[in-house]
Hints:
Layout: H1 2-10, H2 18-42, H3 61-88, H4 91-122, H5 132-153, H6 158-179, H7 181-184, H8 197-200, H9 204-250
Helix pairs in contact: 1-9, 2-9, 3-4, 3-6, 3-9, 4-5, 4-9, 5-6
Amino acid sequence: MRTSILDRVTNRPLVPDTRTLGLTLTSCGLAGALTTAFLGFNWAPLVDPEAWSAPEAYRILYWHVPFAWSSFLAFCLLFVGAASWYRKRTEWGWRLVVTGSDLGLLFGLGVVTSGPIWGSAEWGVPWDWGDLRLNTYGLLTAVALFLVLSRRTQPDGEDTRDTLAVIGLFGFALVPITALATTWYQNRHPGLVVIESEESGLDPQILMVLMLGFASFLVLFAGLVALSDAVQSLKEELEDRQRTLDEEAIA
């Protein structure tokens, strides 16, 4: 009996197939992101120096903007996962909460790090506390940080997951507010330059590099989602094996 159970446990595939997919997509996404940075700094033209205070500093936006897009995708995952967990207690829903909060924090930190670098050069200050988009996005990133820290410090259980799922739903409510903030109330932060490219006179080369950055970060995002799923599957598999071995030891 002992041998058959141990054989059954040790013969299970420990690492999910999504690991290979995740590594491949992540590698391709990173390569594309590096290519975007190279083209942004060496090939894309300057913006109008009469319209920008620091025309050279704008080049950091080739990563800043895709960081922001990717973070919104992460918060969409967080919303779907939180709604699924809160309504039906599905494990895949909680896994989306974990993935969405982790990636929301990762890409959010990319935004709040790169943005102030550009703001310091363009505005003379790294952060404008009177700008609606900056403040709502800062709060959005803070929500992701709170979720990540809470998951790592609080005991896992339904009560903890319920609380964090509600906070995740609140966090997602900030996404449309942040996305449309410059339409409702524009102060310093630029508007939706890609959508308004015809009015803003966005150079085709600049738009091309931006879209390459978006595609690269999208692939990177997909790869990180796959890797996160593989890690969580591995964790669940290890816990399942430990339970099986503990049951066998008691028997």
